[in-house]
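Data card: per-record layout.
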Amino acid sequence: MIDDDLRASRLTADKRPELQISFEFFPPKTDAMEEKFWESIGKLAPLKPRFVSVTYGAGGSTRERTLRMVRHITSDTGVPAAAHLTCVGATRDEIDEVVRGFAEVGVKSIVALRGDPPEGIGKPFSPHPQGYQNAADLVAGIRKLGDFDISVAAYPEKHPQSGSWDEDIDNLKRKIDAGANRAITQMFFRNSDYLRFVDRARKAGVKAPIVPGIQPIHSFKQISGFAARCGASIPDWLAERFEGLENDPDTHALVAAAVAAEQVTELLDEGVTEFHFYTLNRSNLVLALARLLGRRPD
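The structure for this 298-residue chain is written out next.
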């Protein structure tokens, strides 16, 4: 029997460990999507996240929208905004110009990623001849341009293009050693994968925080398709929970909430105190998960 007094998820506010949370959004493509975007930001901002990040398309395809979103988040909500930045399809000078643009609008946090090639996830990556060669190179370049808070990516199930675990962890260490403040993981659904990954990284000398990236399942079909493309696995038990719910959105939503709640409370009980949520520009499930973690609107 598990003693509830030893579980962080069962502690009251005065005894609960201090938590850090952050949220990820993508730039909306239409006026209706933008309205939903700002509605979700408005609901999550009172939770006082460490930052709200906005993704950045390959080759800068959403650069202007990303810049506009992070500028308004910073100025209108008071919540720190983090802009995603990739190495794909741009020279060093072009990327440096983007970084300076972020600084000019008050953005002090950057999520630095190698990025996926325009041909799609899983295709060979070829750096621009005059560009940053990889994520570690990009981190070092950003660090030279200013005092930014820099996050990088980590892969609990190993990056699909890593030849071995040693290669994967070495790559993470290079990014941290180049000046990154933390790593944020790709989505995962087996907490044991994340915990083993953290253990591997610590044994390799990585001391920076490794923040679990949590993906609430608003649509199992959508998430499982994306997982297949990016190398994240869907456990059989998870697929079974959503089986037959394609035309039952109410039950699907309840199962999704239960799955996400189970994941975050287990991680909290394992001593995890930092969480990054992939919102898909929605707030309802993330608000509930924040409450389970003990975070209340200010």
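Known properties of this structure: The mean pLDDT is 90. Strands lie at 20-25, 52-54, 81-86, 109-113, 149-154, 182-187, 210-214, 274-278.

See the next section for split statistics.
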